[in-house]
UniProtKB/TrEMBL annotation:
Domain of life: Bacteria
Protein's recorded name: Uncharacterized protein
């Protein structure tokens, strides 16, 4: 694996992946409480202290990692979105005159609305859980 030096301390390997070498240090004094808080925030974001401080110093706002439960909820929300897209595609694939017949039947529309309302309420519950 041959490497060559470029500007900005970047190195290219044979796969054209750029490896950034960080050689300069940023230093700041902190109280024990400030250091502990920064370490806690870095940990909740799944970052090293160095990476967390660098990102925040550059104006980024690292986010907390999702818990297993939150990841599961997000996957459920994604699956539900996919289901809705498939339902919409199925409805669009029905011939227009047949679709008009279904949706002119008030019982069918009521059942459709009940099912859609339950789905929408569940999505709202998942979204609220994730944003709390």
């Amino acid at each position: 694996m041959k490497k060559k030096n470029n500007t900005d301390n970047e190195v290219d390997d044979e796969n054209d992946k750029k490896v950034i070498r960080r050689t300069l240090r940023l230093e700041a004094r902190a109280t024990e409480q400030e250091y502990a808080k920064a370490a806690e925030l870095a940990k909740t974001c799944g970052l090293s202290m160095s990476n967390y401080v660098r990102r925040t110093a550059l104006g980024q706002h690292p986010r907390q990692r999702l818990s297993e439960r939150e990841v599961e909820a997000l996957c459920s929300l994604t699956d539900a979105r996919g289901d809705l897209i498939r339902i919409a595609a199925a409805v669009k694939s029905i011939q227009a005159d047949r679709r008009a017949m279904y949706f002119s039947d008030t019982r069918f529309v009521e059942q459709w609305m009940r099912a859609a309302t339950q789905l929408i309420n569940r999505w709202n519950q998942i979204e609220n859980y994730l944003t709390e």
